[in-house]
Design goal:
Largest sheet: 7 strands, parallel
Bound molecules: fructose -6-phosphate
Order of helices and strands: EHEHEEHEHEEHEHEHE
Number of helices: 7
Number of strands: 10
Strand content: 15-25%
Structural class: alpha/beta
Length: about 240
Amino acid sequence: MKLIKCKDYNEVSAAAANITAAQIKEKPGSVLGLPTGSTPLGMYKKLIEMNKSGEIDFSPVITFNLDEYYPISADNDQSYYYFMHKNFFDHININTQNIHILNGEADDPERECGDYEAMIENAGGIDLQVLGIGQNGHIGFNEPDDFLISATHKTHLTESTVKANSRFFSSIDEVPIYALTMGVGSILKAKKIIILISGKEKAEALKQLLSGKITTKNPSTMLNMHRDVTVIADEEALELIK
Ligand code: F6R
C-alpha cells in the first residue's frame, strides 16, 4: 500500500485530483468509481477547474457511484444522486448517459444491485476507484460487522453512521436506515484504488488500515489485499502514525 502524506485537506484534494486527471489523460474512456461525502468535495472542485481550463475532458469518461441511500428519491436534496450532480456532474462536460448511480427508488433493490454489478462488468470494470473512509473504517456503506458482503447489496446502516449523517438532515428520523452499496469485493475488483483521509476523527481508522491487519471490524483494512492502493492522508489523520 502506498502512502502519500499531505500537510492538510487542500493537499489531499490536489493529490487526489492529480491522480484522477492523470488516469483520464492516460485512458480517456476511463471508468471511475466515485464517492460522496465531505472529503471528496475539494477534489471535485479541482477536477471542475481542470475541466473548465481544458486540461481534462470528461466526455468519454464513465462513472459509477459507490452507494445511495434507500429508499430515497433522486430529487431529495440529501440523495447521493442530488449531491453528485450539484457538486460535480453539473459543472463538467460528462455525457449524462455515462453516469451511473444506484437507484434509491428501485422496486426490487436486489435486482438493482445485480444489474449494477453487470453494468460495471460490461463497462470493462473500474479503472480508478476513489474512496473516503468512515470514522469506524467503513468504505462505501460496508459497515464493521462479523462478516462483510462481497457484491453490491442492500444494507442496514449502523447507528453511528446514521448519527454521523444526521448532520445533513433536519432531524435524525429523516436519515434513511438502509442503503444500496457496492460490496467490498466490487471495490477490490477496481484496477487501482485511492482512499482520501482527512482530519483527526479518522486517525484511528487510518492507523488500523496501515497496520496491515485485516479485520471485518474495520472494512477499509480489506484494501490490504489489493495490489494497487494509494492512501492519501493529511497530518491530522496521520497523528497516530509514528
Ligand atoms: C460515500 C461513502 C462513505 C464516505 C464516508 C466518509 O459515498 O461511501 O463511505 O466516504 O462516510 O464520509 P466523509 O467524507 O463525509 O467523512
